[in-house]
UniProtKB/TrEMBL annotation:
Residues 9-200 form the MHYT domain. Signal peptide: none annotated. One of its GO terms (cellular component) is membrane. Residues 259-294 are annotated as: Disordered. It comes from Micromonospora peucetia. This is MHYT domain-containing protein, NO-binding membrane sensor. Keywords: Membrane, Transmembrane, Transmembrane helix. Pfam families: MHYT. InterPro entries: MHYT_dom. The chain crosses the membrane at residues 15-33, 45-72, 84-103, 110-128, 148-166, 173-191, 211-236. It comes from the Bacteria.
Length: 294
């Protein structure tokens, strides 16, 4: 059995993975808060998509890959199957999106929360073990069943708490505290699942097919940077409920627009206006009844 090192670069990779999970969780909670105040189905779908990307893509999947940078197995190189790796990212985003749709549509209830937590937690666990299946190394990977079950239970619990926070947390300090808690839960699930793994190395190094960490690192970092910038821009550009309430308040202060005054008609006591139309085509000649003698 080969020796496994989860922290090859010391505290750097777990610290970065925790920071990413907290950042993604905070952005996701803010976007989820906009779902509750959205005025249309299209806006709810938009903010739900952004929240799913922030939590599923940044807080969960990017955290997973960052933590994997510090993973090493003695005596073998580690490569990654790119399509399977990308599939794990898609699984994370879709699972969180469906979970938010379950708890965010209709009236919020315990039944919806449990259903969303079960689905999302199972999706997060599927993301983790799909990402692990993407690894290519010179050896055979095995898992301890008890720890795998424990990691799935942690994933379901963390997902349920995350969805509950997404539907209830509104203010700044509460969002920060919730994001810190979510970061602990996500990292706890990851490293519990990693501790369930063991590697039986094959004799000889051999060639390992797949992409190296350095090949995947640059595009993933760029995706994270552009994704976070896009999320922040979307949040800053969109008006909040307070903005809309303030605009409505100032509209009431201005009051309704004044009605247009009717045109002023000058008096015509001697019929000069009628006489001025004589001679025009189609103008009838005034009768004595129109201008009675005075």
């Amino acid at each position: 059995m080969a020796e496994i090192n989860h922290f090859e670069y010391g505290w750097i990779t777990p610290a970065l993975s925790y920071a990413l999970s907290v950042l993604g969780s905070a952005l996701g909670l803010i976007c989820a808060g906009r779902i509750r105040t959205a005025g249309s189905a299209g806006q709810r779908a938009w903010w739900g998509t952004l929240a799913a990307w922030a939590i599923g893509g940044t807080a969960i999947w990017t955290m997973h890959f960052m933590a994997m940078l510090g993973f090493a197995v003695e005596g073998t190189r580690i490569r990654y199957d790119v399509p399977v790796t990308m599939a794990s990212a898609v699984i994370a985003v879709i699972a969180v999106g469906i979970g938010l749709a379950i708890v965010g549509t209709g009236r919020f209830s315990v039944v919806r929360l449990i259903a969303g937590g079960l689905f999302t937690g199972a999706g997060v666990a599927a993301m983790h073990y799909t990402g692990m299946a993407a690894m290519r190394l010179s050896g055979r990977i095995e898992y301890d069943t008890t720890r795998v079950v424990l990691s799935v239970a942690i994933a379901v619990g963390a997902a349920t708490v995350a969805l509950w926070l997404a539907m209830t947390v509104r203010r700044g300090l509460a969002i920060v505290g919730s994001a810190l808690v979510m970061g602990v839960a996500v990292n706890g699930m990851h490293f519990t699942g990693m501790s369930a793994m063991s590697v039986h190395r094959h004799a000889g190094q051999g060639d390992v097919a797949g992409a190296g960490v350095s090949t995947l690192l640059v595009p993933i970092i760029l995706a994270v940077v552009f994704g976070v910038v896009g999320l922040v821009y979307a949040l800053l550009a969109a008006p909040t409920a307070e903005d809309r309430a303030a605009a409505a308040y100032f509209d009431t202060l201005r009051g309704p627009a004044p009605a247009e005054a009717p045109p002023v008609v000058a008096p015509d006591p001697v019929g000069l206006r009628a006489r001025s139309t004589l001679g025009r085509p189609g103008t009838p000649f005034p009768s004595r009844r129109d201008n009675p003698p005075r």
